[in-house]
Design brief:
With 470 residues, this protein is of the alpha/beta class. It has 15 helices and 22 strands. Bound molecules: nicotinamide-adenine-dinucleotide.
Length: 470
C-alpha cells in the first residue's frame, strides 16, 4: 500500500500540507498525499548536501550496484507502477507499461556507466589527467506527461556520477515518483535521494537554492526561462529540456496511406502530450488532400477511453488546465481552418478530447505557431520544399522533427536543413539512452543522454603533474 509520503534524509515523512491527486479519466480525486512546505524543502536540500561527500566517495561501481537494486525493486512491481501511471497520467495501460519498462532500462543503463580518467597529455616531463567529479546537490524537476521516465532520466545519470538529488515531480502526477522513493528508502543511503511534493509552489525555492549546484529541468519553456534566471546569481549548472512544435515534412514521393498511420501515431501518442510529438504537418500539395483524408479516418476510428480499459488507444488530457488550453486551440482551429475530424471534447467525465485533424489553416494561426500539447493536429500544404523548410523553421522552438520520403537520400537532405536538436527520417521517437537528446533555439539548453548528458552532471577536474622529482 502506497504511503504517499515525502522522502527526507532516508525517512518517509508526512507533509506539513496535503495534496489531492486527480484521475484525469474521471476528473475525481483518487489519492490524498503528503505535500511539503518551505521548511521541509530546506530539510531535503540540507540532507542531500550532507549526504553528498559520502556518496561521491563510494565510487561508480558501488553506486551502480545500488541503482541496479532500485531497478530490480521497481521491476518486481512493474504492473502496479503501470496501473498507477495510467491512473495519475491517463495514458493507455500498454503505453504506461512501456514507460515503466523504459525507466527500468534507463536506470540499468546508467548503473553500468563509469567515469574513467582521461590522460590529455603525456610526455617525459608532464602528465595531464582529466577527472570527472560530481557537482553536489542536483534538483530534478519534472513535468506531468512522462512522470516515470522523466525522473529516471535524471536520477540515473545524477546518482551514478556521484551527486545527491532532491526530486520534485509535477503536482498533478506525483504518484509514481512517490512509489519509487518508497523503494529507494530501503536501498539508497539516507539523503542521497529526497522527494518533495508541492503544489507548483516550491519550484522557485528549489531552483534558486544556494546549496543546489545543478538544476535538471524538463517542462515548459516559460518555466525554463524562470529557472535559467534563478540560477544566474550563483552560476548554477542548468539543463533545460523544454517545449517543442515539431514539424513533419512529407515529400511528394510518399504513399499517403502508408505514411498516415505513422504520422497519426507520432502526433496522437499520449494524447499529443509529448515534447517531441508531431505538432505540425507540411505535406506536398500533390498528396495533401489524400493525406488529410487518411488522417481524418484514423482520427474518427481511434478508440478514446479511460487508459485502464482494454482497447483504449488515446486517453484523456492530463489535467484540467491543459484541457482548457487544448479547448482554446479547438476554437482557434474552428475559426482559422477546416476541421475534418474531431473538433470537440467528449461528452463524458474526465478530460477527453476527440483526436482532431485540421486542414487549410493559416501559418499564423495559434495552432500552428504555438505548442498545443494535445490531440489536435494542423496539416498544411506546400509546393516548394524550400518554402516548407522556411515555414517549418520559422518558430521559436527547435526540439525535434521528422521527414517522410520514399527516396531516403532526399529525406536526409531535407532533414539536414531542419533547425532542431533531433530529426528523424521515416521514423519517429527513437531515443536510445546513449544518444544525446535536447533542443535548439528555445527548446532547451544542454543535452540529456549520451556522454554529453552524463558529463552534464559532472565537472572536469584537471590535474597537471610534473614528472621530474623536486
Ligand atoms: P511546467 O513548466 O508547467 O512544469 C514542470 C515542472 O516545473 C513542474 O514540476 C512544476 O511544478 C515546476 N515548476 C513550476 N514553476 C516553477 C518554477 N518557478 N521554478 C521551478 N520549477 C517550477 O511544465 P508541464 O506543463 O508540467 O509540462 C509540459 C511541458 O513540458 C511542455 O511544454 C512539454 O513540451 C515540455 N516537455 C519537454 C520535454 C523535453 O524533453 N524537452 C519532455 C517532456 C515535456
Amino acid at each position: 500500500m502506497l504511503s504517499g509520503k515525502l522522502l527526507i534524509n532516508g525517512a518517509l515523512v508526512e507533509g506539513a500540507l496535503r495534496l489531492d491527486v486527480i484521475n484525469p479519466a474521471t476528473g475525481k480525486v483518487f489519492a490524498n498525499i503528503a505535500r511539503a512546505d518551505a521548511n521541509q524543502l530546506e530539510q531535503a536540500v540540507a540532507a542531500a548536501k550532507a549526504a553528498a561527500p559520502g556518496w561521491a566517495a563510494l565510487g561508480c561501481a558501488a553506486r551502480g550496484e545500488m541503482i541496479s537494486k532500485l531497478a530490480d525493486a521497481i521491476e518486481a512491481q512493474k504492473d502496479a507502477f503501470a496501473k498507477l501511471l495510467t491512473t495519475e497520467q491517463g495514458k493507455p495501460l500498454k503505453q504506461a507499461m512501456g514507460e515503466v519498462i523504459g525507466g527500468i532500462y534507463q536506470l540499468r543503463h546508467y548503473a553500468a556507466q563509469r567515469l574513467e580518467a582521461v590522460i590529455l597529455k603525456e610526455s617525459d616531463t608532464t602528465r595531464i589527467v582529466e577527472h570527472r567529479t560530481p557537482l553536489g546537490v542536483v534538483a530534478a524537476i519534472t513535468p506531468w506527461n512522462f512522470p516515470f521516465m522523466m525522473v529516471t532520466q535524471k536520477l540515473g545519470p545524477a546518482l551514478i556520477t556521484g551527486n545527491t538529488v532532491v526530486a520534485k515531480p509535477a503536482p498533478t502526477t506525483p504518484m509514481c515518483t512517490v512509489m519509487m522513493a518508497e523503494l529507494a528508502a530501503d536501498i539508497l543511503p539516507p539523503g542521497v535521494l529526497n522527494l518533495i511534493i508541492d503544489n507548483n509552489d516550491l519550484g522557485a525555492q528549489l531552483s534558486s537554492h544556494p546549496d543546489v549546484a545543478k538544476v535538471s529541468f524538463t517542462g515548459s519553456t516559460g518555466t525554463g526561462r524562470k529557472i535559467f534566471a534563478a540560477g544566474a546569481d550563483d552560476l548554477k549548472r542548468i539543463t533545460l529540456e523544454l517545449g517543442g512544435n515539431d514539424a513533419a515534412i512529407v515529400l511528394d514521393d510518399v504513399d499517403p496511406k502508408t505514411v498516415a498511420p505513422k504520422i497519426f501515431n507520432g502526433a496522437m501518442i499520449n494524447a499529443g502530450q509529448v515534447c517531441l510529438a508531431i505538432k505540425r504537418v507540411y505535406a506536398h500539395s500533390s498528396i495533401y488532400d489524400e493525406l488529410c483524408a487518411e488522417l481524418a479516418t484514423l482520427a474518427e476510428n481511434a478508440v478514446v477511453d479511460d487508459g485502464l480499459n482494454q482497447g483504449a488507444q488515446i486517453g484523456p488530457v492530463q489535467n484540467k488546465m491543459q484541457y482548457d488550453k487544448v479547448c482554446g486551440f479547438l476554437d482557434d482551429a474552428a475559426a482559422n481552418g477546416t476541421i475534418v475530424a474531431g473538433g470537440k471534447p467528449l461528452d463524458r467525465d474526465g478530460y477527453f478530447i476527440a483526436p482532431t485533424i485540421v486542414k487549410d489553416i493559416a501559418d499564423d494561426a495559434r495552432l500552428v505557431r504555438e505548442e498545443q500539447f494535445g490531440p489536435v493536429l494542423p496539416v498544411l500544404s506546400y509546393d516548394d520544399i524550400d518554402d516548407a523548410l522556411a515555414r517549418a523553421n520559422d518558430n521559436e522552438y527547435g526540439l525535434g522533427g521528422t521527414v517522410w520520403a520514399s527516396d531516403v537520400n532526399r529525406g536526409v537532405d531535407v532533414a539536414m536543413k531542419i533547425d532542431s536538436g533531433t530529426v528523424w527520417v521515416n521514423k519517429h521517437l527513437d531515443l536510445p539512452f546513449d544518444i544525446p537528446f535536447g533542443g535548439s533555439k528555445q527548446s532547451g539548453i544542454g543535452r540529456e543522454g549520451g556522454d554529453e548528458g552524463l558529463h552534464a552532471y559532472t565537472q572536469p577536474h584537471v590535474v597537471n603533474i610534473a614528472i621530474s622529482r623536486i
